[in-house]
Design brief:
Elements (H helix, E strand, L loop, with lengths): L1 H18 E4 L4 E4 L4 E4 L4 E4 L3 E4 L2 E9 L5 E10 L4 E3 L6 H12 L5 H4 L2 H16 L2 E2 L2 E9 L1 H15 L6 E7 L4 H9 L4 H9 L1 E6 L6 H10 L3 H4 L5 E3 L6 E3 L10 H7 L4 E4 L12 E4 L4 E2 L4 E2 L8 E2 L4 H14 L2 H7 L4 H10 L6 H23 L5 E6 L1 H9 L12 H28 L5 E6 L3 E2 L21 E2 L1 E8 L6 E2 L4 E2 L3 H9 L25 H4 L16 H10 L16 H13 L3 H14 L5 H12 L3 H13 L5 H14 L3 H11 L7 H13 L3 H14 L4 H14 L2 H14 L4 H10 L1
Parallel strand pairs: 11-20, 11-21, 12-25, 12-26, 15-16, 15-20
Antiparallel strand pairs: 1-4, 2-3, 2-5, 3-8, 6-7, 7-10, 8-9, 12-24, 13-14, 16-19, 17-18, 21-24, 22-23
Length: about 775
């Protein structure tokens, strides 16, 4: 018997293994016939047939229908603790059993409730509680209810339209890029802009604080959306094409949130848009949208985009293309001469060369064409009396970049003929812009309309402007901009408050337009209505949910790069020249650099540093993010890193490099950090070997630090490089005197005084040596 026992035991164990299997406390047993799910509390043997072993977490999806007929998806998940017992519906799998049970417990909810976050959350919690009551022991349920997006959007749109009454007035928004009170106030006082003067006399006006960086696409999109650039997504003049990674002119495809024309259209109001920044491809609106590609001032090509993408609705595109072509053809040398008083042959020669914005004469012609195209398009749209009309003029900024250097006091080396012609040309141009405003006011009189004139930033027309030309291949354009633009608000629904004291903000434009149209404010908007407009009342809305991009954004094929566009941006000083050399990616190096600046201005230092470093990684030859890192590190007292980044930016050809270095040295002097100033200046000498003032500054710092031996060594090098520079010789003499080399000190001091006798302190030092 003993001999048979062991074999029999092994046989029985084999049978047991064949018929049963062990499951641990982390598993659950499913009985498909009864629909019960039981979680094991310890190791258990279960038959290999009839029961399914599952994890104690079950997830499924089911649907139900609202009384309005909308489909709602319920995403359900259950987690069961050891020993828990759950009664579901009989089904082949626990997931199917849970789906049936969840469907039975689904709420009878109207779409209006599901559209509200608070109400939907309450329904989810009630359904979770019902599911948990099906279990004995530890059980946790989670439910997410997702109404059909199309049905939910339709409901919200209908609710919005019921909320928005027919507006009491129409609204006209006129954008003058770069308009500044320094120039406009003078022109108004001289009677050259009577229509602007009329608005000022009967309305409210003042300054409009802008954003950093002072770049048009970012700011005009902020005014149109109410959102910061890091939210709306337009961050530069160029973007990366998603298909090819190529750098292309900025488009509306990058915008992540709706603009005012999308919001008004969704509310059932009619709209018109003419030439707004980053509005191509033309979006579907309840009205007419003429994109910024009807006449691309930066490429001198009417309708330089695929047919059907320039204007919405597409059937109107042909007539607007004809308008643009006619404006270009009819704006020839005689027209330019009526504004820019130069000899006709010179104008004809300049137009024949076609250098665009790199030439003040041909660039001026382009400005005239662009102004006529977009103001003419706006006037054509205005005939249909849309509730909202938004018209943009770029020429009010570009004329400053072109002719500003020729205004008194003229920049060094300025052409004398242009110095004479520029002042009347600027005055005549702004007088024409004012006449276009008057024609729009005829179509939209103040008794019927609220009129808002705004600029994205100001412009340095006076003595504070840069002393160099805007220049090819150096991003100097923003140096000409002031951080405060203008606003003038008048007409129906506007209080006449005259000039305001505190500046408003570009964030206040969208709330102002919304209030005047009777639209709800955006819940995430940082701005408020401008002075002269009543504060908004009523519940704010999430416009991005009400008007998602897919509801208005057209589909276009690959966007082609534009070498001409890039060349004109360089000519105007908006690009340094290296921004188009980076690799592919969802954001260009320019966008990342600007994003870093936005973070830096907001005090988000870590995010700023990450963005600048990403910009450098995308394009190591790009100087600007290095300089911006210098500012970040300096403000964080990380001086070694700050100097390293500044020197790298200078090496890469930073715009206004010498000015940047002088400002950095001045920062250290202000803080009393002479050692740092001396170190930075000495390092910079290798980058600017022909800068005599920098050599003199190095000697001055070393003397102030009493490092006489080092100073006299540097002095010999400096005198050898600049034997006829009075400042270098003066500090060289002082360095030699400090080191005890009296002979060299006398020689250098005497030579300096020959070159510049007006140095009383040096004379005193020389007398002391003698």
């Amino acid at each position: 018997m003993k001999k048979l026992f062991l074999p029999l035991l092994f046989v029985l164990m084999g049978v047991a293994v064949a018929l049963f299997r062990p499951v641990g406390p982390s598993s659950a047993l499913w009985d498909s016939a009864s629909g019960t799910l039981r979680v094991c509390s310890s190791w258990t043997l279960v038959p290999r047939w009839g029961k399914a072993v599952v994890l104690p977490r079950v997830a499924t999806t089911t649907t139900f229908t609202t009384p309005e007929g909308a489909t709602v998806t319920a995403r359900v998940q259950l987690e069961l603790g050891p020993g828990a017992h759950l009664q579901l519906a009989a089904a082949p799998t626990p997931e199917q059993g849970l789906a049936v049970k969840a469907g039975q417990l689904a709420p009878t909810a109207k779409l209006g409730c599901l559209a509200q976050n608070t109400c939907r959350q309450k329904l989810q919690e009630e359904m979770e509680a019902s599911l948990q009551r099906l279990a004995s022991g530890s059980a946790k349920a989670s439910v997410v209810l997702e109404p059909d997006p199309a049905a939910l959007l339709a409901f919200r749109r209908q609710e919005l339209r019921q909320r928005v009454s027919p507006p009491r007035r129409r609204v006209l928004v006129v954008g003058w890029d770069g308009a500044d009170w320094e120039l406009l106030s003078k022109l108004v006082a001289r009677g050259l802009m009577p229509n602007l003067q009329k608005l000022m006399a009967v309305g409210t006006y003042g300054e409009l604080s802008s954003l950093t960086p002072l770049l048009s696409p970012l700011i005009w999109t902020t005014m149109a959306t109410g959102e910061p650039p890091e939210v709306h997504g337009i961050l530069d003049f160029l973007e990366a094409d998603a298909a090819t990674g190529a750098r292309v002119p900025v488009t509306s495809r990058k915008r992540k949130v709706p603009a005012l024309w999308n919001m008004a259209s969704a509310a059932g109001l009619t709209v018109g848009v003419s030439g707004w920044w980053a509005s191509w491809p033309a979006e579907a609106v309840n009205g007419v949208l003429v994109s910024d590609r009807l006449f691309f001032l930066l490429s001198d090509a009417p309708g330089d985009a695929p047919p059907g993408t320039v204007v919405f609705p597409p059937e109107h595109e042909a007539s607007f293309r004809e308008l643009a072509e006619r404006a270009k053809v009819e704006t020839g040398a005689p027209t330019v001469a009526t504004f820019l008083p130069l000899e006709l042959p010179r104008i004809q020669e300049a137009l024949a060369q076609g250098r665009g914005m790199a030439d003040p004469i041909d660039g001026f012609r382009r400005i005239l064409v662009g102004t006529r195209v977009y103001m003419g398009a706006a006037l054509k749209i205005a005939e249909s009396k849309p509730h909202l009309l938004m018209a943009y003029c770029i020429g009010t900024d570009e004329i400053g970049h072109l002719l500003g250097p020729y205004l008194p006091p003229a920049s060094p080396g300025a052409d004398p003929a242009l110095v004479q012609a520029a002042p009347p040309a600027v005055e005549r141009y702004f007088a024409v812009v004012d006449r276009w405003l008057g024609r729009l006011l005829e179509q939209c009189p103040l008794s019927e309309c609220a009129v808002l004139v705004v600029s994205d930033h100001g412009f340095k027309w006076g003595s504070d402007r840069p002393r160099e030309f805007s220049g090819v291949a150096a991003a100097t354009a923003a140096l000409w901009h002031r951080p405060k633009g203008i606003f003038v608000l008048a007409g129906n629904g506007v209080m006449a408050k005259g000039r305001t004291g505190e500046p408003a903000s570009v964030y206040d434009v969208a709330p102002t337009v919304a209030v005047l149209l009777g639209l709800p404010l955006g819940a995430s908007w940082p701005g408020k209505p401008l002075p002269g407009v009543s504060l908004a009342s009523g519940e704010k809305v999430a416009w991005s949910e009400l008007v998602p991009p897919e509801s208005y954004r057209p589909r276009v094929q690959e966007v082609k790069p534009s070498a001409e566009y890039v060349a004109q941006l360089k000519a105007l000083g908006y690009l340094e020249g290296g921004e188009t050399q980076g690799g592919s990616g969802s954001n260009t190096e320019g966008e990342l650099n600007n994003l870093g600046l936005l973070h830096l201005e907001a005090g988000r230092l870590q995010e700023a540093e990450e963005a600048f470093k990403k910009a450098i990684a995308a394009n190591p030859a790009y100087a600007s993010p290095h300089y911006n890192l210098r500012r970040l590190y300096f403000e964080s007292e990380r001086y070694e890193e700050a100097d390293r980044e500044l020197l790298e930016a200078l090496r890469l050809g930073l715009r206004d490099g010498r000015g940047a270095l002088q400002r950095a040295l001045a920062d250290y002097e202000r803080l009393g950090l002479r050692e740092r100033a001396a170190s930075l200046a000495s390092s910079a000498v290798t980058l600017f070997p022909r800068d005599a003032m920098l050599r003199a500054a190095v000697l001055r710092y070393l003397l102030e630090l009493n490092r006489c031996g080092e100073a006299v060594e540097k002095a010999r090098e400096a005198v050898s490089a600049f034997p006829q520079d009075a400042a270098v010789l003066a500090f060289a003499g002082l360095s030699a005197a400090c080191a005890g080399d009296t002979a060299s000190a006398k020689t250098w001091m005497e030579r300096s005084l020959v070159l510049n006798p007006n140095q009383p302190e040096l004379k005193q030092a020389l007398r002391m040596l003698e």
